[in-house]
């Protein structure tokens, strides 16, 4: 766990999280058809939104229906990857973004790197940069 999450579900609205192959296989094993929960957009396979919210969001409880099997990108959030700067960073859209510290970024870096390798965004062994001012 990288941060304090208040379970507001803001990150589950109007976000089409990029999915890795492992994410899709893991979720499909729960009995969901990839045709139902994925969409192709921007060169990637992403979580499908239904009426502005993730396919897996329970609108009444604001809970994730597949929490224990949720995509790795959802697990890392609000830690994200800034493609243009090749930097691991924190999404300020999350109201609890301030609870994520530098150590969290350092810990998440290899996990994020594995996703980026799997997606073909970085070469195997390559790591996203840490933000400027980081001690590592
Ligand atoms: S937006 Fe931030 S605080 Fe809200 S559910 Fe997502 S990670 Fe948690
Ligand atoms: S999979 Fe779960 S945590 Fe991820 S965006 Fe959808 S509802 Fe939110």
Question: Describe it for me?
Answer:
With 136 residues, this protein is an alpha+beta fold. The protein has one domain (10-118). It is 25% helix and 18% strand. The protein contains 4 helices and 8 strands. The chain has helices spanning 21-28, 34-37, 72-76, 102-118; strands spanning 38-41, 44-47, 49-50, 53-54, 57-58, 63-64, 79-82, 87-90. The strands form 4 sheets. It has a two-stranded antiparallel sheet with strand order 1-2. A two-stranded antiparallel sheet has the order 3-4. Strands 5-6 form a two-stranded antiparallel sheet. Strand 3 and strand 4 (53-54) form a beta hairpin. It is globular and about 40 Å long. 21% of the residues are buried. The mean pLDDT is 93. One iron/sulfur cluster binds at residues 5-11, 77-78, 94-96.
Radius of gyration: 15 Å
Tertiary shape:
globular
Count all strands and give the number: 8
Strand order across the biggest sheet? 1-2
> Which H/E pattern describes the elements?
HHEEEEEEHEEH
The amount of helix comes to 25-40%
Largest beta-sheet characterization: 2 strands, antiparallel
Strand content: 15-25%
Q: What secondary-structure arrangement, pairings included, does this model have?
A:
Layout: H1 21-28, H2 34-37, E1 38-41, E2 44-47, E3 49-50, E4 53-54, E5 57-58, E6 63-64, H3 72-76, E7 79-82, E8 87-90, H4 102-118
Antiparallel strand pairs: 1-2, 3-4, 5-6, 7-8
The protein binds iron/sulfur cluster (SF4) (2 copies).
In short:
The protein is of the alpha+beta class and 136 residues long. The chain has helices at residues 21-28, 34-37, 72-76, 102-118; strands spanning 38-41, 44-47, 49-50, 53-54, 57-58, 63-64, 79-82, 87-90.
């Amino acid at each position: 766990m990288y941060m304090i999450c208040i379970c507001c579900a803001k990150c589950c609205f109007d976000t089409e999280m990029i999915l890795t192959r492992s994410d899709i296989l893991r979720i499909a094993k729960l009995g969901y058809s990839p045709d139902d929960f994925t969409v192709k957009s921007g060169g990637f396979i992403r979580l499908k939104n239904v009426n502005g919210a993730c396919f897996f969001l329970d609108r009444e409880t604001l809970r994730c229906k597949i929490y224990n099997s949720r995509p790795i990108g959802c697990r890392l959030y609000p830690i994200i990857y800034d493609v243009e700067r090749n930097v691991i960073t924190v999404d300020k859209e999350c109201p609890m973004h301030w609870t994520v510290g530098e150590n969290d970024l350092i810990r998440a870096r290899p996990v994020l790197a594995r996703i980026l390798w799997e997606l073909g965004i970085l070469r195997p062994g390559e790591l996203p940069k840490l933000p400027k001012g980081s001690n590592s």
